[in-house]
Amino acid sequence: MCKVIERDPGEFLQSYVADDVHWTVSGPFKKTHPLAGVYNSREEFKQNTFVPLSGRFDGGLKLRVVDVISQFPSRPGDPVKVCIELEGVATLKKGQNEWRNYYSWVMHFKEEKAVTVRAYLDSAIVNEAMAD
């Protein structure tokens, strides 16, 4: 899973995230940045986060796995819980400046697919990238 995230985040979404995932990006209640929200499908998440953000980068976003913590269920039917810390690096089209952000994704897996995700990131850095 970690190698897939680093090689191709889109492939990770297809291979390891359920179609009907419930994905919350930090700041949804005050909408602290343009990507903040609650998304109820993989496609909705992708269209509202990956697509607009990647449009700001020259050459795309490169993710690197920093750390992974997992908890396996103590009872049958409970989800496998995984927290993954990521570093994202890209070059902004505007100004050609380096852009760097850290993410933490708390994921609950059932049948090898993430069914819920809570994503945390630095909203000020996202706002910088999304500014016109």
UniProtKB/TrEMBL annotation:
InterPro entries: NTF2-like_dom_sf. This is SnoaL-like domain-containing protein. It comes from Acaromyces ingoldii.
